[in-house]
Every structure is written in C-alpha cells, then in structure tokens.
Amino acid sequence: MTTQVQAKLHTVDGHRLEVADAGSGPPVFLLHGAAPGASSAGTWSSLTPVLARTHRVVAPDFLGFGGSDKPERGDYGIGLWTSQTLALADELGIDRFSVIGNSLGGRVGLQLALDAPERIDDLVLMSTRVAPSDSPAQTLLRNYRPDRDLMRELVTECFVHRPGIVTESLVERRYTLSALPGAHEAIQCFFRGGAAPPSTDLEKLLPTIEHRTLVLHGRHDKVVPVSNSITLAQSLPHAELHVFADTGHWFPLERADRFEDSVSHFLTHARD
Length: 272
Description:
Shape: globular
Strand order of the largest sheet: 1-2-4-3-5-6-7-8
CATH architecture: 3-Layer(aba) Sandwich
Largest sheet: 8 strands, mixed
C-alpha cells in the first residue's frame, strides 16, 4: 500500500511555505538543497512514501523555492532557512524531530543541531558542504539563468555521474521551477552571500554535535567533493559514513534503492 503524500500551504513568519506532510510516528524533516529548480517534490518523491510507513514525514519547500513564496529580500541563506524550519515545526506542533538534509539542506541540519540541539533527534547528511570550494560545476550553478538548454547542461554536467538517466521531463520540471517569478533572484541572493553563514568556523564546532549522524555521499560528486563528508565523519562524535560508488551529487536518483534502504535502516534502528 502506497502512502498518499499531499502538499499544502502553511503560513510561517508571514510567508507561505508549501509543505508535504505524510505518515505518523517519529517526525522527520526532509530538507532539499539550494540549486536552480530545487524543490522537496523533486528531491524526495521516492523517499517520502517509504519513510511515511514508519514516520511522520515533513518536507517543506524553503522560502524562495518550489511552491513557497519568493519575496524580494536580501537574507536568503542558512540562517533564514534554519529559523523557518524551527518555526514550521512550531506551527505543526512538533517539538523534536530528525533531519534528512540534501546538500544545503544538510548544512541547515547541522545548524539546527547547533542552534537547537534539544529539538533534534538524528541527522542524515547528504552531499553536505563543510568548507568552501570552487569548481567548474560551481561556476555553472552560479552562472545559470532560466533556460531549458542551460538546465539540461546543469543537470547532466553537474549533478549526475551517468547522464543517461536524466529525462526530458526532469529537465523541464527543474527549468519550470527555476523560471517562476522570484526564484532566480532568491538563489542569486544566496549565491552572492546575501546572508552570511551563521558560523564561519563550522569545522571547529562539529565535535560538539552529539547527535547520531548518517553521512552519505556520491564518490564522483562534482558539486560538493566527497572530502567534505569524510571530514564530517571524522569530526562528528557519533557519525557513520556511506560512500556510493559510480554516483554523483544526485546519488538518491542514481542509487535510489540503496539510498532508501540506508536511510530507513538508520532511522528505524537508531534507538535499538
């Protein structure tokens, strides 16, 4: 039996966030990344119904992305999305929750663990950046403007190790979201550093995060080098690392079954 996943709008701090909310059990928030056309539905469509069999799954679109509002403002960044995640949890009556964060979403997960450790249960960090870096993939990301051909290049050149798995419907969906009014301005604000990271000394703070953590990465990630996850696994006191062979930044797409099994097993057995 497939769990039905529905998204609806919640007003948080005066702005509408589109949020998928499914299942029952221990709450887990799924936090997407910050790339053109990113959204919760695009990132978590296969994982949400799997986890909803055993957990309450909450998957918001960050402000500036997907179906959420995209107001003109200058503070799009980790601090904003961290505070809004906590405010959304309050709105939904959720005190404690686990976090699964993809890329930038993982960085928000770390900030949640630093800012509100008493509210976080377990962490799953996917392709999460610890230290700044530059690469051709980063240049493509920053130079993107809403265009179908540029989106196709971005997806095939940056996000996957095997370009053959990329479909035209995926490219079209990402392009359409990236072209929504306010979407490009929001992500460009983030790329420009419109809001400085809450902590510029993240590596020094990692040993203070006591939460059980599953660290996941694709070996051939061109956007966030796998060395970031190695640093996380070595620095976090209660972390385990899984590296997916023959995969890139989007290993949940390239290795969906293994990814879903790893996450489900970790969350289900975390308290055993």
